[in-house]
Amino acid sequence: MKSTMMSVPLSVNAIFNRMSKIFGEAEVISRLPDKSLRRHSYAQIAERAMALAAGLEAAGVRRGDRVATLCWNHHVNLECYFGIPLAGAVMHTLNLRLAGEEIAWIAAHAKDGVLIVDDVLLPLYREIAKHYEFSRVIVVQLGDEKVAAGAGSYEDFIKPYRGKSFVPKPHDENDPVAVCYTSGTTGRPKGVVYSHRSTFLHALCASAPDYFALSCRDVVLPVTPMFHANCWGVPYAAVMNGAHLVLPGPHLHAEDLLDLITETRPTLALGVPTIWLALIQALDANPGKWSVPKGMRSLVGGAAASESLVKAFSERGIDCVNAWGMTETSPLGTLSFVKPKVSEAGHDEILRRKSFAGIPAPILDLRVMGDEGEMPWDGRSVGELQVRGPCITGGYHDVEPDPDKHTADGWLRTGDVATVDSLGYMRISDRKKDLIKSGGEWISSVDMENALMSHPAVHEAAVIAIPHERWTERPLACVVFKPGKAISTDELRAHLATDFAKWQLPDRFEFLSAIPKTSTGKYSKLKLREMFPH
Amino acid sequence: MKSTMMSVPLSVNAIFNRMSKIFGEAEVISRLPDKSLRRHSYAQIAERAMALAAGLEAAGVRRGDRVATLCWNHHVNLECYFGIPLAGAVMHTLNLRLAGEEIAWIAAHAKDGVLIVDDVLLPLYREIAKHYEFSRVIVVQLGDEKVAAGAGSYEDFIKPYRGKSFVPKPHDENDPVAVCYTSGTTGRPKGVVYSHRSTFLHALCASAPDYFALSCRDVVLPVTPMFHANCWGVPYAAVMNGAHLVLPGPHLHAEDLLDLITETRPTLALGVPTIWLALIQALDANPGKWSVPKGMRSLVGGAAASESLVKAFSERGIDCVNAWGMTETSPLGTLSFVKPKVSEAGHDEILRRKSFAGIPAPILDLRVMGDEGEMPWDGRSVGELQVRGPCITGGYHDVEPDPDKHTADGWLRTGDVATVDSLGYMRISDRKKDLIKSGGEWISSVDMENALMSHPAVHEAAVIAIPHERWTERPLACVVFKPGKAISTDELRAHLATDFAKWQLPDRFEFLSAIPKTSTGKYSKLKLREMFPH
């Protein structure tokens, strides 16, 4: 007996069809560099995306060619998300937080052809151009700056094809649609290449009620950059479900975001914890200045929101939800939704579980591997987190297979150290390389950071290992106080002593004005280690 | 550039893993023939499903073999949904509403081997056994009846394998998991064979917030039989999301369902409109006797709930949602969720749109074909509804391709006549064969039935064509009054005259005590035509 089902490939273009035919009336609000808002309907974005596809085709872009983008979050970037795959090409989202030379290395590695770049990012482009030459540069005019000589404007590029229909290039479901390079905390950045299949499946899966919960009644604000792991898949998933989008452009300071939130009333906002920390500070410093929609969900990724951050949000009527993922996982891996069993256990237990990485999405398998094989799901047994599934990368673009990255039986080694409990909640103890080995025992830097940040005087905290002759390594705690607040090393040590054994307590504290961050907003332990080598 | 994503097949077993590992604490409540409730955790069902798989393997069942079920909705049926695919076999859900001889024909056509049958259905089994011999019969003991000689009990069958793990048989994602025969209003029943791929995709898609909206906080009551189009995919989708299940067993009278609803507090119930009509009548006849959970969603399929039914539900605090689908479409095709644009237009517009078939699910493409090609989405242009996608059947088991069923370019011809409006709402005008052709013009039987049922005295109405020498066909209206109510033909005609032209009004009315139904609870126009041939 054989299945009688049709053989129809999964396709990003099917999501595009929903944008163009089913949800044409939904709205995309973009904030420009001058802080004005520009509004488009889905139907308008779809029409412009088809013109982009036709323009790319006319410019000689062929199936599988890379079209790079160096853009903030705005409507043209959304057009690229759909227009580039319509033309059969592969969207390469360049990370504008990196140095020009590094971007050039990545563009060269991916063999990028056409580049679509914001006018406000032309200074960065000029740095890149010293090291890499794109075949063609198309400039998105958002501000008033004159377009650089030799570079045509995006509007001119799509103009001849406006108002015409475009027949999407035929493709296999395993054909690539987008490539994203990992931020590369160790070694060179590596390219993860998403397919039509993985992108469609991820959008469907992320939409589910216990995950991103995307409906046509939502207004979604991705603070997450559109160059970071496909903006967590939000552009695809939001469009699939007809949700309104608010794209914040280049202004990402807490005050700017609160202005935008007050005006556009999002129901869901997504970003890294550092963004939300700043938001809370600004809200507290200016009572009554802004209004955040009651019950707005704030989805936190990149690093877990601590219990104290979840609590701080909850006290302000915002539902803070943790999610875990990587560029390598499309990125949704787990999300900390509240099971009925957790609700029954009361408010404290809800806050505790919400600070976990969460429950695996339906699209991936997850296991915790110790030295003697798979660890039980008991909430205590620690091991390396490994994942497997159709939206997980099985390798990297033009990089030899690496047993440090993938196991022999085909699982991705995430480099995270984790536990899973009997209700299926995964909790990251640490990055493998951030664990502190002291006297033959392990200390979790993440646990200690969360404990430090639960003190009312502490704004941010990061813990790193420093080499020690006798104990191998010892923890060093870097602490940023809230404005106008400061406490002593002894007080901090006393605060930690409720959760940690005496030998685990840091011998040394450093008080900083800010913790250095990576290009994706995470604490940069690499930079801290450079600052405090011993 | 090639995608770097892992090649991992989509699989029903991945849903099973969620049942066994992630949502082990979720509950399945089954109502037995003696009306008592039996409770199992997901973990218990998963353990028993693995024992079933091991038992089937030991009994010689091999990859692709058909294992038939003839069961009401209960926990063992749910075990079959997962245990049979774990063993690499194909679940064939036999329709217990059919006559024994017809079931035997279907079982023979599918070449069923093992049969799993409820003890309370043994009389029907004996009718089938006169025409078809299964290789082995396993009896589910729900009541007290002694198991028939020669047939082992289900509990004995799984006993040797209880408490042991079972490694799922390896499979391709296009391998079959289940077969379901269409009810066959024309010609012989035809087998639709679902694959791992289509079943997983359908579960993911049906879960979305604007479709079944399934979360781990839901309690789902499928009144829909588990032998009907995979119970609309609910067993897979509910388990994927960890929702509690209430399986109503053989007692499906309105009073029985209301007892069950009052006790188990479902948040979502699914069934055909006739079930809900009876529910409303019983609620009205016995005020205060039952309590339906406030805001319970009632998902209606099989035929559309009329505006008056949607309204009646809404007045009782129940959110009635229409969905359209077929055995051929896995079955979710469209669902009538409320877009913001519709909400803005007010209460009447909400009720009107909710009575439509609804908006296409992300997993399928939909078009309306007229004589001159594809019709515009203007809410007026009528044509044949055609669908395409990875969860749509491209043929039937062991049946030659038929241009009446599939177009040359690979679309399923649904046999429904429909319009789609500019917001993407599809509305079925009629079954193609139920349209009434009078004097060269068409009359929609569905529109006339809805208009009749909007009269407060009318309980049910079905309209069929009878042959007419001069006008080709003329409408005949079959009407069932509510208890204690009756009105004249003239009054009915006057009621219709507000929506229909004079020439469209039925010349003839027949008053019945009930409209005959098909095995799936739809109006049987075939039987009505036999009753009123001219």
Q: How does this model look, in words?
A:
Two copies of one chain form a homodimer. The first copy, chain A, starts with 11 loop residues before the first helix and ends with a helix. Chain A folds into three domains: 175 residues, 3-Layer(aba) Sandwich (Rossmann fold); 110 residues, Luciferase, Domain 3 (Luciferase, domain 3, Roll); 97 residues, ANL, C-terminal domain (GMP Synthetase, Chain A, domain 3), CATH 3.30.300.30. The mean pLDDT of chain A is 93. In chain A, the strands form five sheets. In chain A, strands 2-1-11-10-12-13-14-15-16 form a nine-stranded mixed β-sheet, sandwiched between helices. The first copy, chain A, is α/β, with parallel strands linked by helices and 534 residues long. The longest helix of chain A has 17 residues.
* Multimeric state: homodimer
Q: Widest sheet of chain A: strand order?
A: 2-1-11-10-12-13-14-15-16
Q: What general form of chain A does the structure show?
A: globular
Strand content of chain A: 15-25%
By CATH reckoning, the class of the largest domain in chain A would read Alpha Beta
Number of helices of chain A: 17
Whole-number total of structural domains of chain A: 3
Report the largest inter-chain contact. Answer: A-B, 77 and 76 residues
- Give the biggest beta sheet of chain A: 9 strands, mixed
**Low-pLDDT regions of chain A:** none
Query: What structural class should be given to the helix and strand makeup of chain A?
Result: alpha/beta
CATH topology of the largest domain in chain A: Rossmann fold
Task: Please identify, by name, the CATH architecture of the largest domain in chain A.
Answer: 3-Layer(aba) Sandwich
Distance between the termini of chain A: 67 Å
